[in-house]
TrEMBL record:
NCBIfam families tied to this protein: PRK08116.1
The protein's name: ATP-binding protein
Native source organism of the sequence: Clostridium fessum
Pfam hit, one: IstB_IS21
Signal peptide as annotated in the record: none
Keywords: ATP-binding, Coiled coil, Nucleotide-binding
Gene3D superfamilies associated with the record: P-loop containing nucleotide triphosphate hydrolases
Keyword set includes Protein biosynthesis: no
InterPro entries for this protein: IstB_ATP-bd (IPR002611), P-loop_NTPase (IPR027417)
Amino acid sequence: MNQITGTIQNIFSDRPLQEDEYRNESDNLIHCAKCKTPRQHHVVVLGKEMVVPIRCRCQQEVQDKEEAERKHREFLDQVSRLKANGLQDKSLREYTFANDKGYNPEMQKAHDYVVHWSEMKAKSIGLLLWGDVGTGKSFFAGCIANALLEQGVPVLMTNFSRILNALSGLYSEEKNQYIDSLNQYSLLIIDDLGIERSTEFALEQVFNVIDSRYRSKLPLIVTTNMTLEELKNPQDLTRSRIYDRVLERCVPLRINNQNIRQRNAAESMKEARKILESGTGT
């Protein structure tokens, strides 16, 4: 045993000095010439004092920086994967707060939802975004989705047409597994509730998805062109079961009546006219 400890001691202590090192006279340990902190340390092993290598301050700073960079790269890779899975329509990646033109006076509430996300998740609080066609409901929801994805939060933004297409070719147990898989996302966003097919199969699956989310106690954001009155007074029992669950967990928020889609189209036409009338075409 003494031979082993002696060998270890020789390996660690008896090494030549590097160009950026010196031996400190007070502790007889190798120190860094740059930061003046030791690169060796006294320890006691099996009752015998030994000298072992350690990182000096500047070496530790380099190590910490490299580790931080590695973790940052891993985080960016994670965010990229989350976006690929959660934003099934690539155009949704443009729905960000940075691209907000300030047309929607309710957008501050989207910022607030993101800021208070931990509380929203803990209390299973979602949003019901309702209003006329083209008023920015999907953009509002997409801004929340992208902001949370940038924080590494798993979010899925989809619609029932896409979900129903996926479910139509599955057997009963596979359907259940698919619906359960939607709850792997911390936030589920269903765009355009009410435009899906109104068949018995479709409404049953819509209920199953909403009910599964309801029972999971995870937040849900829904956008719809229906009015709040229509949601509160559905035409049949099946829809009532669906909308009741949405209204219980999702705070209704009316998105303004301004047709942002038409406004954007008008601005695009204006820019096109400028280009065409400038006579600078090639």
